[in-house]
Design goal:
- This protein is mostly beta strands.
- The protein has a single domain, classed as Tumour Suppressor Smad4.
- Helices cover about 0% and strands about 40% of the residues.
- The protein has no helices and twelve strands.
- The strands form four sheets. A six-stranded antiparallel β-sheet has the order 10-7-6-3-2-11, with no helix packed on it.
- The radius of gyration is 14 Å and the shape is elongated.
Length: about 110
């Protein structure tokens, strides 16, 4: 797994077009002037279009990353990459990082 590092300003959506934002960031490491995000960070999701129970099992509310960089750590935690994978709760669907900075790439 390799790719650009995710940062606070990255564009990340749930599978149903909800906007996902990190709940915390690592202020010690900056890319493009913004803090990076590590695997231990959960994401809050707003605007998910999946219907609530009886019509569906949504909307997506939070997400947790299950993969991160295998070689780059920040404060002992793997940093997130554009290719990292996350699972949304309560739906079990993925997060989709779509736009991030491209100057810093990791493995």
């Amino acid at each position: 797994m390799s790719g650009p590092l995710l940062h606070v300003g990255a564009t990340v959506f749930c599978a149903h077009a909800g906007q996902a934002q990190p709940t915390t960031a690592n202020p010690r490491v900056l890319v493009s002037g913004q803090p990076i995000v590590t695997q231990s960070t959960s994401y809050a999701i707003a605007g998910c279009t999946l219907p609530p129970p009886t019509a569906g099992n949504g909307p997506c509310v939070t997400a947790q990353w299950v993969t991160g960089s295998t070689r780059i750590l920040a404060d002992g935690q793997p940093v997130l990459l554009l290719s990292s994978q996350a699972i949304c709760a309560p739906t079990g669907t993925p997060l989709l990082p779509t736009v991030t900075q491209t100057r810093v790439v990791g493995l």
